[in-house]
Amino acid sequence: QVQLVESGGGLVQAGGSLRLSCAASGRIVRINFMGWYRQAPGKQRELVATITRGGSTNYADSVKGRFTISRDNAKNTVYLQMVSLKPEDTAVYFCIAAGAVVVGNPVLLDYWGQGTQVTVSS
Description:
With 122 residues, the chain is mainly beta. It has strands at 2-7, 10-13, 18-26, 28-39, 46-52, 57-59, 67-72, 77-82, 91-102, 105-112, 116-121.
């Protein structure tokens, strides 16, 4: 019952910036965690950043100091501000909504977006 729509991906030169957005829609009661995964060609999926409803954040070491995650609980939207981008940041970025509760169902479920491509040229 939750759909995630991502935007903001694209092509950028090394050292540039991008801002990713992901809006969750549906009969949402609460989303405990929101965040971003990424998967580069030939590599396994990596958890990039997460944020709780209260604003507590965690980052992968590879992006710490360069990426900032934030969320708007009223809009059920999560953002990823990426600066000082490197070619190794090139990947498909997936939005996640974890521990989500929808109207009429008390079970906590996780939802994934379809992914958005980020390409950083050298």
